[in-house]
Design brief:
Shape of chain A: globular
Number of domains of chain A: 1
Radius of gyration of chain B: 20 Å
Strand content of chain B: 15-25%
CATH class of chain A: Mainly Alpha
Largest interface: A-B, 13 and 11 residues
Strand order of the largest sheet of chain B: 5-4-3-6-7
Strand order of the largest sheet of chain A: 1-2
CATH architecture of the largest domain in chain B: 3-Layer(aba) Sandwich
Helix content of chain A: 40-55%
CATH architecture of chain A: Orthogonal Bundle
CATH superfamily of the largest domain in chain B: Glutaredoxin
Number of helices of chain A: 4
CATH topology of chain A: Arc Repressor Mutant, subunit A
Number of strands of chain A: 2
Helix content of chain B: 25-40%
CATH topology of the largest domain in chain B: Glutaredoxin
Largest sheet of chain B: 5 strands, mixed
Number of strands of chain B: 10
Distance between the termini of chain B: 53 Å
Oligomer: heterodimer
Largest sheet of chain A: 2 strands, antiparallel
CATH class of the largest domain in chain B: Alpha Beta
Distance between the termini of chain A: 22 Å
Order of helices and strands of chain A: HHHEEH
Number of helices of chain B: 6
CATH superfamily of chain A: Winged helix-like DNA-binding domain superfamily/Winged helix DNA-binding domain
Structural class of chain A: mainly alpha
């Protein structure tokens, strides 16, 4: 998995996505722009991060969950 | 048996929505919808660790940057496992010095292959033939190429095809045989006699009323 490892922790790609969200990126396009990751990988990664409880979706916007905030500290 | 063969050889149709999928790849689980907004070259190869496929993967890797300039991604597929794809990609990098930058679908259950008509039983009942699907940002199939197991694909033609499709979309024109960027394009044929008369006065380079060319502005 590109963004979440088997133990449920974010990989380096996942951490980059989480940090981009913390820095204000709220859409896959903005995250792709901030991280330099291809858009398809960001979309796929966001699914994984969401399934792992690290990211929350509100309408069209993504944000960090409490677990996600803890993970990047 | 007939049904199975029918399912395995069912071909998509130009202009239709590309069949959706969710598949394990060498870069995680991907869906077709993850590529919305970008052009996609979805291609299949018969098997990992085989000679012609290895030359193709090196060639696809070599055009990756050119494709990115065209807002186009690459996605490979074969009926091999993720572990096999990873091992092969590492081998290609170690032995041939080429990093494979794009994901490869591990279609062990042939779910995607069947949706895209990638298995041609007269070529092989178990391996995918060399298919290329050009899928546009709206997930529509815009072009298809099918090559036999014995014949490696031409990367320049794949780039040329994408250039032609993107030019057609941008300028509402067609492209003639052997067209390449910078060459004159074909003005669509007139639909009425009135249009046929009018177009002769529009400054196009016309061989006759039905064959008119024009240069596009430099982009």
């Amino acid at each position: 998995m590109p963004c979440v490892s088997a133990d449920g922790k974010p990989t380096s790609s996942g951490m980059a996505v989480l940090k981009a969200i913390k820095d204000g990126a709220a859409s896959p396009e903005q995250i792709a722009s901030k991280t330099g990751q291809p858009l398809f990988r960001v979309r796929s990664g966001l699914r994984e991060l969401k399934n792992a409880g690290l990211v929350e979706e509100t309408g069209d916007k993504v944000g960090l969950s409490k677990t996600g905030e803890t993970a990047i500290q | 048996m007939t049904e199975i063969l029918k399912e395995e050889t069912g071909l998509p149709v130009l202009g239709q929505k590309a069949p959706d999928f969710e598949a394990a790849t060498s870069q995680g689980t991907l869906r077709l919808s993850d590529y919305k907004g970008t052009w996609l070259v979805l291609f299949s190869h018969p098997a990992d660790f085989t000679p012609v496929c290895t030359t193709e993967f090196i060639a696809f890797s070599n055009i990756y940057d050119e494709l990115k300039k065209r807002n186009t991604e690459l996605l490979g597929l074969s009926v091999d496992s993720v572990s096999s794809h990873i091992a092969w990609a590492r081998n290609v990098e170690q032995k041939m010095g080429v990093k494979i930058p794009f994901p490869i679908i591990a279609d062990l259950n042939k779910e995607v292959s069947k949706k895209y008509g990638m298995i041609h039983p007269e070529q092989s009942k178990t391996e995918t033939v060399r298919c290329v699907f050009i899928i546009d940002p709206e997930s529509k199939i815009r072009a298809m190429l099918y090559y036999p197991l014995t014949t490696g694909r031409n990367m320049n033609e794949i780039i040329r095809l994408i250039d032609a499709l993107q030019t057609t979309d941008k300028h509402k024109v067609a492209t003639p045989a052997n067209w390449k960027p910078g060459d004159p394009v074909v003005v669509p044929a007139p639909a009425t006699t009135e249009q046929a008369e009018e177009r002769l006065k529009e400054g196009y380079e016309c061989k006759d009323w039905y064959l008119c060319m024009k240069k596009l502005p430099e982009s």
